[in-house]
Amino acid sequence: MNVITALNRKYIPYTLVMLTSLGINSKESVDAYLLHSELTGEDEKFLKGALEEHGVNIHLVAIDRSMFSDKLPRNEQWSLETYFRLMMFDVLPDNISRALYLDGDMVINKDLTDLYNMDFADKEIIACDDKGGFNQKEGYGPKHNEMFREAYEHGYRYFNAGVMLLNLELMRKRYSFKTYLDAFEAWDYQMEAPDQDILNWVHWKNVDYVDFAYYDLFARVAHTSGITYEEVKKDVAIVHFPGAKPWENANYHFGIEKLWWDYAKKTPIYQELLESFVESAVTDNSIELFMRNLDEKNRTQADLLQQLMAKVKEIM
C-alpha cells in the first residue's frame, strides 16, 4: 500500500501517530512517502525505527520550497507544506500507479485495504464529502461559490482533500505541477481553502466518493452530533481532527479525542506528547481570555438592558 503525506519538523510527532495507527490496523505492509523540505537524516532514522515494527516503510521525498510562489496563501492552518502534494506527479516514482493521500491530523482505526483496492472506473480521485457531509454550497463563502458555480450546477459534491485515493497512472498522463500553478494564477491566488479548492476545481469532473462517516469522520462534527468514543472506535475507519487538535489546548476537548491518544500511546514519544499537553494546559490562557471577553460582553449587554428598562419606565 502506497501512502503519501506532507509535513514539516513540527508535525513529525503527529504524523508518527497517524502512521502508527495505519500500520497497526493494516493487513499489508505500507510504503509511506513523506513530502518535506526540512527533515534531517536523524528524523528519518527516528521515524524508520519507530514504525518498522508496524510494517511501515518510510521514504523521504525532498521538495524544493523555491518552486512555490510567495503569493500562495499561508497562515497557521495552511502552511507551505500543504501545497507539497501538488508536486506528487513530479517527485514520486513512476512505477506507483495508485496511492492514498492522508493528512497527518487523523488516526486510522481500521484496515484500509478495501478502500485502497477500489476500482477507479476511469475516475482520477476517490474521496469523501467535505465537512462531515455538511458540504452544501450555502456553507461556503462567496469566493468558493464563484469558483464552483459551474460544478454545483452539475450537482457537484465538494470533497475533503485529507483522504484521497489517487489514480496516479491516469493523472500523470493529464496533469503536472504546472497544472495546479496555472489554476492558482487563474484565480489570482484568492481561494478560501487554497490547495483543497484547487484540487476540487481541477478534478471536479473526475471524482468518485466513499462514505465520509466511515472513511473521513470529522471528530468535532461527530461529537456535536452525539456520537461517542465507543461508537467511533467500533465503527469508523478514519477519524479526522481538522481545525482544533487533540494535542492542543486553545479549545474544548471531548471524548472522541481519546482515540487519538490511544494510538499516541503506541508510539515511543507518548510521554513527551503527554508532558507537552499538560504543560500547555497549565500555561495556555486562551480559554481564560475567551471567558473574560464573554463576561465583559454579558456585562455590557446587562448595562444596555438596564438603560432600556429605565427608558421604558420613563415612558410609562
From TrEMBL:
Keywords: Glycosyltransferase, Metal-binding, Transferase. GO terms for molecular function: glycosyltransferase activity; metal ion binding. Coiled coil: none annotated. CDD domains: GT8_A4GalT_like (cd04194). InterPro entries: Glyco_trans_8 (IPR002495), Glycosyltrans_8_dom-fam (IPR050748), Nucleotide-diphossugar_trans (IPR029044). This is Glycosyl transferase GT8 family. It comes from Butyrivibrio hungatei.
